[in-house]
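Ligand: copper (II) ion. Inputs:
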Amino acid sequence: MRFYGLAVLAGAALLGACGGGEKKADTAAVTPAPTATTPAATPAAGAVAKVAATGANHDIKMVGDDKGYRFEPAELTIKSGDAVTFTMVSGGPHNVAFDPATTPADSKAQLDANMDNKLSELSSPMLMNPNEKYTISFGGVKPGVYPFHCTPHLAMNMKGTITVQ
Ligand SMILES: [Cu+2]
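Predicted complex:
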């Protein structure tokens, strides 16, 4: 009998049976820590803060009657930092809209930021009823010529110009 040989075979069988045991996954891989450095916030385009008026207040009436649609006065000269209050008188709805294409580029974002409750860029809401008012601060708005119009009555030449000195 070759006892020794059998013992070796039996041992080999045992080793084989255990060979399918699970392998531990290698979890030693290093996960990089999240970087703590966040880039400093840079103001996005259009993120201009409103600047309140500090100067005089001027009035422009919005009128529509049998003589036509108009701003009174249609031409107004103010200083930077003044405010202009538009008052709906008759023939509404009226609004005040600056054409982005003709608004001085260096103050476009500031003027837009200074307008509350806009319908769209540089465009005020509609004033529906007599004595409704809409005030625009020209705080931070640089000297220049600012043409504006009433959106519903643009075709009827309801236009004006504010010159900021
Ligand atoms: Cu109008």
